[in-house]
Amino acid sequence: MEDHSPETVEQVMAEAALETVMEDLPTAAILEETAAAYNLEPAAVIETSTSTCETFPPLSLPTPLQPLFSTPNTLISPLFVLAVVIMFLSLLFAQKFSRSPLQQIGHVGPRGRKYHSWNESTTGGCGGRFIDWWIFGGSVWIRAALCLWDGMAGTHSSDGDHHQESSGENLFACFGVVGNKSDKSAAGESERNDGEDKKQSETTPDHLAHAVSSTGILGFDSSLGGFGPICLAPIRASVFLLGWCSVCSFLKISYNELVDFITKLADPASAGHFQQIPSLYRDKIINVVASILYFIQDVMKVGNDLVEKKSDSLGDAWLPTIAYAIAFIVVLEFGMYLIGNACMLLKIYVPMGISHPGGARPHKIVRTPQWTEGKEHFLSQKLLSGDYSSSSSSSSSRDVNEESGVLSSKWRCAVAHDSHQDTIAKFNYIKSKEGDDVSSSLMTGEPFGRQIWTLNESQPSSDKEVSEDDMENKLKQELVPNLKEEKKEEEEKTENNNNIFSPLSPLGDLVQNIFSFDRDNESPKEDPKQDETAKLIETIASGGRNPMAFDPSKNPNSCDQIFRAQMISSYLEKNDGKFPEDIAYLQDKGESDEANPPKTAMEAAKRGVAFYSLLQSTDGHWAGDYGGPHFLLPGLVVSWYVMGCPSVMISPPQQALMLHYFKVHQQADGGWGTHIESPSTMFGAVICYLAARLLGAHKDEDWIKSGRDFIQKEGGAVMTSSWAKFWLCLVGCMDWKGHNSVPPEMWLLPNWFPFHPGRMWCHCRMVYLPMGYLYGSRFIYSQAETDPLIEELRNELYCEPYDSIEWDRTRHLVASMDNYSPIPTFMKFAQNCLSVYENWKIFRPFRDAIRKAGLDFCLEYMRAEDLQTNFIDIGPVNKALNMVSAFHSANNDINDLAVRSHMMRVPDYLWVAEDGMKMQGYNGSQCWDTSFAIQAVWECGLLDKFPILSAKVWAFLERTQILSTECSQSTPAYQYESCDSRDKFYRHVSKGGWPFSTSAHGWPISDCTGEGLKGVLALMDSPIVMDE
């Protein structure tokens, strides 16, 4: 026999093993034949083909991880029991404090915001916040320690009242944990707050009252209150420990299985196909598995070295278990800290924080709006005068008709008390059960700042009220020297002069003279009777545009020509036809700014302020168009339609102006954008088309055909986004199965739950609140199955027969042009799970039992929102949804007082401009705009130069501060300032803040409060304002 190298033998062995597998021959026979062929002993062949395997002992677990029961692979261990106990106690603690007034300690305190988190600049929303909990959440231990220190930093007297905090001579005081006030300042503050402290001590335990006053923002959590970190830290620890118990149980099971596997793999006598694996690969497999086993042993060895004591009883295991848990948490948190910093250094994970949202998204919209260049739209005189006879007609029973009538002849913007009187007159038929007129009592809230568009003439104020005109006249008499004498002389000169500014001449006549149109053609016509002043007003009001012309290809935003013409005319009427002194040259010499440019910056500033004094409302604010989004007005139209089309809510003249708005904003491709400046989207197209048809537009009109073609070309209404689908479901043009679940029972979850709706941003929360109610109630327009217009819409909006659509398969459908931020896979999975929950009968008993409680809470919460905002609500979307919800809860009774109160506040959101009537994104921006405007006047040092303007702004800001006047404090909103109410309905303190719009709106905003306060402080620099 020839000698063969080991490599040759190894190759032969492999071939022999392969032959064994292929021919199913006995392994021993093959090996013997191979040994004989190469003159080798069979034992040598076996030794060559088989790896030696060490004997691995059973895995030695540390005492805290040893099973408590006889089952070897059980998860139950002392560490597991400890983790469960910590979790349970922490949740009980969180549940207690999430329902207590302690969560109302949202005041900043001495620490300031920058200590809120060590890594606040890296915390983000949604998924980023979830990752932060694991990677960057270790600072919660520091915050918990500081919270505990806050509770111990002060001293307490025997009577329970907390005294001044520690003077700060400790480490925590250096971080701003406790105040460093001097004894003198602290004593002064103690005297000032003595009443509040006593009141607080009556409702809050002594040891908690101090924590409430000193915890501040560092220890504040939106749902857990000042003791949030003390709850969150042990919860975090228990989650880590439970996870580690699961990992260790998995490691133990895996260890036993791997030991059994390599034992069989290395044993020549083992049965099965283990011996059919070539020894070359068998050795490699055994080495890899052995390395894994060694690693598991080393991991457990660390625990055994840490906890050397072995115990057979559960009682003896507690001290080792606690020591092991503390060591594990410390090591793990340190490791997480290193991982987080490494991620930040390598820029693997750098989500932006809430305070630092970053720039625009990298994937911008590449499409642009498509307008017909040079096409100007004009508001016809019929629309301006409230004549709706030329509006689009429809074969539906919902046609506008002449019987509704027109109350007056001209649109005008009524503000403050004038607006309240107009609304009360419009709803004066509302009677209580006893027959008394209750319309005036339903119109609650501070009137200052309110602005509505009406066709009614100005209503006289009641004897108890002082109108804004009276206030302005009083200011003129007191602030302008010799104004009475000058006015008397002018009146004597013009006693018999019946000019356009005479108080006997209606303001509407002037506007009619300025904007005169041909009734048959949408184009302006020349009026030879227009005088120079009227032409000047026209020029100023149009802002350089063609009077009353609207061309979206040049600018899709209006310039408020109607409002400006009204305000300028009103100013001239009240001031004997004279412009302010600084722009009087426009009237005296007929010169323009180009012909007479300002010589200095101060002169330019004076002209600017003088111009804006023309536009100031009688109550002191500056009004203007705050429209833009196209999805606001359609929601109101759907609400109006499903409530039976009440004319007091949307009158026929308003319908005509709304149709004009939709028509002039339609783009050349037939669609509408989500916003007036965006390209066409399915969201905008579907919802605007729906609204136009409900308002009376006929399906055969050219612009309606164009809109329908755009929708069908993109796949029909099933491709629109969720909010449009929601409105379609309400009106009966889509089955509720086509909309993802909005379960109202989510509100019943504990406040500490991560996905509780109370944690949402206020606007998001207040929209999905009524959505959850309407979805849970499965509200549908009561006449949907018999209304011919709804039948037509079901055929027009879809590319296939309505009855053949499988609605459940359309829930996630959305057009690519609308899918700017695709829904994550996890969210789709969650929505699919909710769909199963909604539709499977097996869940029906549980769902029915809990849903009623969820619906009841939604109704209670919506009622609180309505009363806190005087039925204005936080924004236009939830305004419409809350109104429909009130209508449904009243058994579709349109005369219910809550429903009437809602309808009385609808005009607050409507605005008229040269592009028609639109719904604003808020009930205006009155306080926000006025605060900036008066700060600009102050910066120029012109407060006393324009004393009436400044005094009116002072009055407005004073009356706009939320819940600060007798009028606002007499409303039900004031009752919700209690700590329990704020806690229950997720509100902060409202009293004393400033809103974005009006006091009656009731929602304070931090930056609006800051700007409002700055405006007040600026006005305090004016001696004239302060003297008055």
Q: How would you describe what is shown here?
A:
The chain crosses the membrane at residues 75-94, 317-339. GO terms for molecular function: cycloartenol synthase activity. Its EC number is 5.4.99.8. The strands form four sheets. Strands 1-4 form a two-stranded antiparallel sheet. The relative contact order is 0.08. Helix content is 49%, strand content 2%. The chain is built from 40 helices and eight strands. The protein is globular. The protein starts with 5 loop residues before the first helix and ends with a helix. Helix 4 (78-98) runs antiparallel to helix 11 (228-266), helix 24 runs parallel beside helix 33 and helix 35 packs antiparallel against helix 36.
Query: Helicity level, as a percent range?
Result: 40-55%
How much strand? under 5%
Globally, the shape reads: globular
Q: How many helical stretches? A: 40
Q: Order of strands across the widest beta sheet?
A: 1-4
Mean pLDDT across all amino acids: 75
Helix-strand makeup class? mainly alpha
Radius of gyration from CA coordinates: 38 Å
Major sheet size, sense and barrel closure: 2 strands, antiparallel
Tally the beta strands.
8
Low-pLDDT segments, ≥5 res: 1-7, 16-28, 40-53, 99-130, 153-223, 349-358, 390-409, 493-525
- End-to-end separation: 126 Å
Topology (SSEs and partners):
Blueprint: H1 6-23, H2 27-37, H3 42-49, H4 78-98, H5 127-135, H6 139-153, H7 171-174, H8 183-192, H9 194-203, H10 206-214, H11 228-266, H12 279-306, H13 318-346, E1 377-378, H14 381-384, E2 412-415, H15 416-426, H16 439-442, E3 451-454, H17 468-479, H18 483-493, H19 507-514, H20 532-542, E4 549-550, H21 561-574, H22 585-588, H23 601-615, H24 633-642, H25 652-664, E5 672-673, E6 680-681, H26 682-695, H27 702-713, H28 722-731, H29 762-777, H30 788-796, H31 825-839, H32 844-868, H33 876-889, H34 897-904, E7 910-913, E8 916-919, H35 926-939, H36 947-960, H37 966-969, H38 979-984, H39 1006-1019, H40 1023-1027
Antiparallel strand pairs: 1-4, 2-3, 5-6, 7-8
Helix pairs in contact: 1-2, 2-3, 4-11, 6-11, 11-12, 17-36, 19-21, 20-21, 24-26, 24-33, 25-26, 26-27, 26-28, 29-32, 29-33, 32-33, 33-34, 35-36, 35-39, 36-39
